[in-house]
Amino acid sequence: MDNFHQLLQGFHNFKQKYFLKEREYFESLEKSQNPKTLVVACCDSRVDPAILLHCKPGELFVIRNVAALIPSSDQADSPSAVMAAIEYGVKHLSVEHIVVLGHSRCGGIHGLMHPETICNEKYIWQWVSIAAPALDRLDDLTDDEPPEVRARHCEEGAVLLSLDNLLSYPWISSKVEEGSLKLHALYYDLGEGELYRFSPEKEDFLPLALKTPKKSTK
Ligand SMILES: [Zn+2]
């Protein structure tokens, strides 16, 4: 079976295991959606927010793009697919949380850090250039830091930049100020299988304190 036919089989499995077993839930979704959280994630096939955050259809309003970037109000072109989706999530669905989910080994951020690898790819280059200010964060590091540390610093910086860019839209910043909308920065480490959350107090991404309960040895 080739990959595409595997996908069709996958839908069959979804229908048997979820749709037909939870008819009431899916019938409610037919009438409306009421997600509380909007997630901006990377297109990367390894970083599916619904799987990583263990969510069902209807629970997350998801926007995916190269490197999980959000343009500032000065940068957003018209039409902007990203901003149209965020506007819909904020104004029509009244989401209570916006999460920007970055990740390790991000090809988009790698391109930003190594322009020679994408300089002939107009659309990728234009897009990842949104995150150019995140490169300034590399000034915090010494030149002898290994490439993966430098990449992580830049990947995390791009997530924080996107959160800042969100605040450049008055219809977002006003909701954040009144407390009806909360912004969150998450970072997923592919190798560790660990999720990090930005702490404004510590000014750093910290691993989630949630741990799998250890099995009793008794
Ligand atoms: Zn990525």
Estimate the global geometry from the Cα principal axes. globular
Average pLDDT number? 94
Distance between the termini: 47 Å
| Parts with pLDDT < 50 across at least 5 consecutive residues | none
Estimated share of beta-strand residues: 15-25%
CATH superfamily of the largest domain: Carbonic anhydrase
The major β-sheet equals: 6 strands, mixed
| Ligand species | zinc ion
- The tally of structural domains comes to 2
User: Helical residue percent?
Assistant: 25-40%
**Can you count the helices?**
8
CATH architectural arrangement of the largest domain: 3-Layer(aba) Sandwich
Classification by helices and strands: alpha/beta
The level-1 CATH class of the largest domain: Alpha Beta
Cross-sheet strand order for the largest sheet: 2-1-3-4-5-6
In total, how many beta strands?
Answer: 6
CATH topology call of the largest domain: Beta-carbonic Anhydrase, Chain A
Rg measurement, Å: 19 Å
What's the helix-strand series? HHEHEHEHHHHEEE
Write up what this structure looks like.
The chain is of the alpha/beta class. It folds into 2 domains: 1-31, no CATH class; 33-200, Carbonic anhydrase (Beta-carbonic Anhydrase, Chain A). The chain contains 8 helices and 6 strands. It has helices at residues 3-19, 23-31, 49-52, 81-92, 107-113, 122-128, 147-166, 170-178, and strands at residues 37-42, 60-65, 97-103, 182-189, 194-199, 204-207. Strands 2-1-3-4-5-6 form a 6-stranded mixed β-sheet, covered by helices on one side. β1, α3 (49-52) and β2 form a beta-alpha-beta unit. The chain is globular. The N and C termini lie far apart (47 Å). The site of zinc ion has 7 residues, from α5.
